[in-house]
Amino acid sequence: EAFAEKMNQRAKELGMNDTHFDNCTGLDDDSTTHLTSAYDIAIMSKELLSHERIKTYSTVWMDSLRDGATQLVNTNKLVRFYKGTTGLKTGTTSKAGHCISASAERNGLHLIAVIMGSSTGAERFESAKTLLNWGFANYETVTPTLDEGLMTEVNVIKGIENPVKPYCDNIKPVILKSGMKGKMEAVVDLAAEVEAPVEENQTLGTVRFTVDGEAVCEYKLKAERSVR
């Protein structure tokens, strides 16, 4: 019970608002409050995949224990038969049916498909492949690029040195619908001048990346050095 309580606490922290654990096994319970949702399983799966080491285990197809006396085969058949599979977990009970949280990565795009309540194991795998195929066919990862010509220097009033150059670091990939990469634009909002002193990494403005006018991500533009 104490462990399940910890699970519920962590689920709440992750934003799994439709989940409540009555036990720590995942097995059927007589209670009507032992519940989760496909969306919450996706949240949990994403958190698990943020730890790279889990893929060391979730991608193993077959292994043995006790000097070969016991052989284990992964219940997730996608590991063997679906290109790019990274995991993650199957589950079957009489109440929940045949379920899977399936993850796969291709060309930098990492997707999660959650299937619950299938009548057979084969059905869950086919459904997961259908969702993943749709995702890979319709979306792609794009790393925004910032034209250095947009990064004008900022005047420093009363500074010993003038001007200071802004920079933007750690720009991460975003997921876009296929074919939308060419429509991405960078909108820079940068101060024309600031008053000394200026601290290194002080925010001087922002850059917002948009597609068809809709913002997809935003980053701070910072001072590359201090100015007294």
Structure description:
The protein has 228 residues and is of the alpha+beta class. 23% of the residues lie in helices and 35% in strands. It is built from five helices and 13 strands. It has helices spanning 2-14, 38-49, 54-58, 78-81, 121-138; strands at residues 62-65, 70-73, 85-93, 97-106, 109-118, 139-142, 155-157, 166-167, 174-177, 184-190, 193-195, 203-211, 214-223. The strands form five sheets. Strands 8-13-12-10 form a four-stranded antiparallel β-sheet, with no helix packed on it. It has a three-stranded antiparallel β-sheet with strand order 3-4-5, with helices on both faces. The protein has a two-stranded antiparallel sheet with strand order 1-2. The longest helix has 18 residues, at 121-138. The N and C termini lie far apart (59 Å). The relative contact order is 0.10. The mean pLDDT is 95.
Keywords, please?
single chain; three-stranded antiparallel β-sheet; alpha+beta
- How much helix is in the residues? 10-25%
> What is the strand content?
25-35%
Main beta-sheet strand count, sense and barrel state = 4 strands, antiparallel
Q: Please provide the ordered H/E string of secondary-structure elements.
A: HHHEEHEEEHEEEEEEEE
Q: How many distinct beta strands?
A: 13
Helical element count? 5
Could you give a quick summary of the protein structure above?
With 228 residues, the chain is an alpha+beta fold.
List the helices and strands and how they pair.
Blueprint lengths: L1 H13 L23 H12 L4 H5 L3 E4 L4 E4 L4 H4 L3 E9 L3 E10 L2 E10 L2 H18 E4 L12 E3 L8 E2 L6 E4 L6 E7 L2 E3 L7 E9 L2 E10 L5
Parallel strand pairs: 7-11
Antiparallel strand pairs: 1-2, 3-4, 4-5, 6-9, 8-13, 10-12, 12-13
